[in-house]
Amino acid sequence: MWNCPKCPGVRRGLSMFTGMVECLCFAGILFGWASLDFILKKQGFFGSFCVNATGINGSQVLDCRGQDEQFSLVFTIASFMNYFVTLLNGFIFDRFGTTVARVYAICLHLMGTLMVAFSTPARAALLFPALSFIAVGGSMLLLTNFQVANLFPNNRSTVITLLNGAFGSSAVVFLIVKLVFEAGISHRASFLFLSACSIIHVLRTVFLLPRHIIPYPLPDHYTFGLTCGKSKKSEESVTFDPQTTDEVQHVNKEPATPEKTFRECVLSRFFLFSVIWLSVIQLRNLQFIGTLNPTLQRLTNGDSSLVSKYTNAFAFTQLCAVLCGPWNGLILDRHKRKPRVEGMSDKEADLRSTVLSLFLTALFSLVFSICATIPVLPLQYFTFVMAVINRAFLYGGLAAFVSVAFPPCHFGKLYGLVLCLGAIFSLLQYACFALVESVLEGDPLYVNIALTLLILFSFIHPLFVFLHCRNLQSQRVKDLEQQ
């Protein structure tokens, strides 16, 4: 009954649906930080860093910039760990398979939610490891769900970007925690409930995912879950297909064309520009999320009700990421529905399809950064929309580009390395916050302008890919003329 080819609708549908729920409700909850930040401040976490100060008119005011700095540091470390350990996560997944990877992810996520549940203003330091555990565990849950896209070969990129969108939308979970907190339910009760939900991850690991990795293309009579079956064509060679960290069966046993080495890939311009593209866009996005609460405090002149209103609006907007993600997937998969130009290879068609995706991501990031720079409170509604669209495009587009631009055997290492380097670059968000608070007296205008100018470097990547595709086209035309 569980044989995929015989019951594709039920088994594949359940795997896809539960994967969406898992990504939507657990994997990326870290990025709802603005809502959790609001709750923790209300309870006095890091309150000892607030000091009495003299206001402009000589009155005594409470200066909580030190408290904001601690919260910014918590988010900076957690978001850094979320991407920095991707290389390690990929190695664990590739080497030990789905079950081991998910047990590791579930344990981390469980420890993180329990530590937040039992944190208090007196034990505020627990937030540093807790949020990092939640981030790393969530990113591994997302990684293990990517392989579900192999069950839908004609729409793999769309499924990947849909899961990425659900990952981004999971930020709404902290909004729900905030709303029930305002209704009188403690954050401890909410996080204990999230901890109890770990049983869902365990059941899904046992019944709806393979022990190892879902292969692509799917072999005949392939099953997974408790029976974790394999193809009857076991005599065929199996190699690793990195786009969704799966195994690919090659019936053709002819010698493969020599591929570039890992070192050659890392030293290529494709890799360099992809790192720059990700790093500058990711830095702007994380800096915005990490400083949203103090930014709203400044724009509303400390009006707590307005801060709460805009924080809720941002969280609700993030829920729409699950709707934005598939747009990028449709852009990346569109060439599969069009007639192929004579002589054009699948790799060239895939690479050409990434140009529009990369360009739109950079453009959305630029528009988002410009809006975030303008200190007009009502404009922030549009800023929230652009931030969500930008994030929904960013990571799915990166995975798709790396999978088509480099040899399959190096995908896991290269994808993890790009995110690793991007994570190191993202540490600048804390330096930006410290600069604003200590030198610019809380006004982030100049830092925002600098980050907006930095975004312009992201356009180099789609431009280079476009020029490369045009050269491939010219070469193809010459080859056809000579035949």
Topology of this structure?
Layout: H1 8-27, H2 33-42, E1 51-54, E2 60-63, H3 65-84, H4 86-96, H5 98-117, H6 127-145, H7 156-169, H8 172-182, H9 187-196, H10 198-207, E3 237-241, E4 246-250, H11 262-266, H12 269-290, H13 292-299, H14 304-318, H15 321-333, H16 346-373, H17 380-405, H18 411-426, H19 428-438, H20 445-455, H21 460-482
Antiparallel strand pairs: 1-2, 3-4
Mean pLDDT: 81
Structural Rg: 23 Å
Largest sheet entry: 2 strands, antiparallel
Structural class, please?
A: mainly alpha
Q: Unreliable segments (pLDDT under 50, ≥5 consecutive)?
A: 1-7, 228-256
User: What's the total number of strands?
Assistant: 4
Fraction of helical residues: 55-70%
Distance between the amino and carboxyl termini: 53 Å
DSSP helix count?
21
Overall, the morphology is globular
The assembly state of the depicted protein chains is single chain
Strand order of the largest sheet: 1-2
| Secondary-structure element order, N to C | HHEEHHHHHHHHEEHHHHHHHHHHH
Fraction in beta strands: under 5%
Could you please describe the fold and organization of this structure?
The chain is mostly helical and 483 residues long. The radius of gyration is 23 Å and the shape is globular. Helix 5 packs antiparallel against helix 10, helix 7 packs antiparallel against helix 17 and helix 12 packs parallel to helix 16. It has 21 helices and 4 strands. The N terminus is likely disordered. Helices cover 67% and strands 4% of the residues. The strands form 2 sheets. It has a two-stranded antiparallel sheet with strand order 1-2. A two-stranded antiparallel sheet has the order 3-4.
